[in-house]
Design goal:
Largest sheet: none
Radius of gyration: 21 Å
Strand content: under 5%
Number of helices: 1
Oligomer: single chain
C-alpha cells in the first residue's frame, strides 16, 4: 500500500534521507574510532605499558 505524502513529500523524504545519512556516518565514525583505539592499546601493551583492568586489547573482541 502506497501512502500519499501530499505536497510535502519531497521535504519528508529528504528529511528521512538526511537523518539516515547522518546515522550511517556516525556508525562508521564510531567503528573506525574503535579500531583506532584498539590498535593504540595494542601498541601501548607491546611497549610494556599495562592496563589497570588487567585485560589486554586482544580480549576486547
Amino acid at each position: 500500500m502506497m501512502m500519499s505524502l501530499g505536497p510535502y513529500a519531497s521535504f519528508i523524504v529528504t528529511s528521512y534521507a538526511a537523518a539516515a545519512l547522518v546515522v550511517a556516518i556516525l556508525i562508521g565514525w564510531i567503528a573506525l574510532d574503535y579500531r583506532n583505539q584498539t590498535q593504540r592499546l595494542r601498541e601501548l601493551e607491546e611497549s610494556g605499558i599495562t592496563r589497570r583492568s588487567g585485560r589486554s586489547a586482544t580480549d576486547l573482541r
